[in-house]
């Protein structure tokens, strides 16, 4: 059985994911071999196959781990005891910050998702849909309460915000003029302004 950690104390699955993420970002998913991933992670192929069934499983996990983090945080914001406008603003800003903090993961996924098998693609789409539905529920809550305008359907509002989020990897640069928090505040403000009654 493969060891859970190697010499530096970092768990093997995290080392494999870090190596795969870096290589997929630099070279592309299709131009990165399993051998290159295990060499970069300092583990054996046996260790990779112990934790991940394939290179495709690594690709799926690169994005799924970000989605899990974002879902957990969205659930916390949505369940908070605060006005719906504050909860939506916090959730809208958080998805921007967590995407920027995991920009390689997001860009790899959007660039390489066509490499996933139909079954894995379906699983990831279901995870994304669950996130979007929870986000949409916040908008609908505010619309029912009269806090947000109902002029634009909630689905379209969700698509508007996430269209901006999904394109962050095409233009955001860590050395640019705006911090992740500043970008998040601007995009959250745009969303809330669009929903004003």
Automatic annotation (TrEMBL):
<dbReference type="InterPro" id="IPR023772">
    <property type="entry name" value="DNA-bd_HTH_TetR-type_CS"/>
</dbReference>
<protein>
    <submittedName>
        <fullName>TetR/AcrR family transcriptional regulator</fullName>
    </submittedName>
</protein>
<keyword id="KW-0805">Transcription regulation</keyword>
<dbReference type="InterPro" id="IPR050109">
    <property type="entry name" value="HTH-type_TetR-like_transc_reg"/>
</dbReference>
<dbReference type="InterPro" id="IPR041490">
    <property type="entry name" value="KstR2_TetR_C"/>
</dbReference>
<keyword id="KW-0678">Repressor</keyword>
<dbReference type="InterPro" id="IPR036271">
    <property type="entry name" value="Tet_transcr_reg_TetR-rel_C_sf"/>
</dbReference>
<dbReference type="Pfam" id="PF00440">
    <property type="entry name" value="TetR_N"/>
</dbReference>
<feature type="DNA-binding region" description="H-T-H motif">
    <location>
        <begin position="33"/>
        <end position="52"/>
    </location>
</feature>
<feature type="domain" description="HTH tetR-type">
    <location>
        <begin position="10"/>
        <end position="70"/>
    </location>
</feature>
<keyword id="KW-0238">DNA-binding</keyword>
<dbReference type="InterPro" id="IPR001647">
    <property type="entry name" value="HTH_TetR"/>
</dbReference>
<dbReference type="InterPro" id="IPR009057">
    <property type="entry name" value="Homeodomain-like_sf"/>
</dbReference>
<dbReference type="Pfam" id="PF17932">
    <property type="entry name" value="TetR_C_24"/>
</dbReference>
<keyword id="KW-0804">Transcription</keyword>
């Amino acid at each position: 059985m493969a060891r859970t950690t190697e010499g530096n104390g970092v768990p093997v699955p995290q080392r494999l994911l870090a190596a795969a993420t870096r290589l997929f970002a630099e070279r592309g998913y299709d131009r990165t071999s399993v051998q290159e991933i295990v060499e970069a992670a300092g583990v054996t192929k046996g260790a990779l196959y112990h934790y991940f069934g394939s290179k495709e499983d690594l690709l799926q996990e690169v994005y799924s781990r970000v989605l899990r983090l974002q879902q957990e945080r969205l659930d916390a914001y949505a369940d908070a005891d605060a006005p719906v406008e504050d909860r939506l603003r916090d959730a809208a800003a958080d998805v921007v910050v967590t995407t920027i903090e995991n920009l390689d993961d997001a860009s790899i996924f959007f660039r390489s998702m066509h490499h996933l098998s139909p079954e894995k693609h379906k699983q990831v789409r279901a995870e994304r849909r669950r996130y979007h539905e929870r986000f949409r529920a916040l908008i609908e809550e505010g619309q029912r309460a009269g806090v947000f305008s109902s002029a634009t359907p909630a689905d379209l509002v969700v698509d508007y915000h996430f269209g901006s989020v999904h394109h962050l990897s095409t233009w955001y640069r860590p050395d640019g003029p705006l911090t992740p928090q500043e970008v998040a505040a601007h995009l959250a403000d745009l969303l809330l302004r669009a929903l004003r009654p």
